Fold:
Amino acid sequence: MSEIPETGQLIALKADTPLNLSIVSGATASGTVLLIAIIIFLHLHCQKYPTAQDIAIINRLTGAAMIAALVAIMASEIIWKSQLRRIDAHNADAIIRTAFTIRTGLREMSAILGAFVTLMASTGGVLKLYPVYWATLLPAWLFLGYLAMHWPTFENLDSEIGTALQK
Structure:
C-alpha cells in the first residue's frame, strides 16, 4: 500500500476499484481495436483515387492529430500527478478513480482522433497512394500500449500512486 508522504497515512483502495477501472479500460481498448479493424477493412476495399485536395487535407489533419496526441499525453500525466497530490485518507479512492479515468480519457481522445484521420485517409484512397499516413495510427497504438503497461490492478495502481506521490 502506498503512503501519503505528508501524513504517513496508508492509501486504501476499495476492493472493486481495479475491477471498475478494468471495465473502463477494456471498453476503451475494445473500441480502439474495433476502429483499427474497420480502418483496415475499408482500406482493403477502397477503390477511390485521391485528389490533391484530399491529400492536402489529410496532411494537415495528420499534423494536427500528432500535435494533439503529444499535448494530450503530456496533459494526462500532469493531471494524473496533480490529482494524486490532493489525496488524503478519506478521499483516496475517489481521487484515484477520477485521476485514472481522466488520464485514460485524454489518451483515448488522441487515439481516436488519429484513428479518424486514418479512416478519412483510408476511405479517400490516400493510404493506398501514400502508405506513410498509416503513421497517424501511432496515437492509437500508444494508447493500447499505455493500457497494457498500466492495466489497473492493485499492484499497478499502488506502484504508480507511490511513484507519483514521491515526486
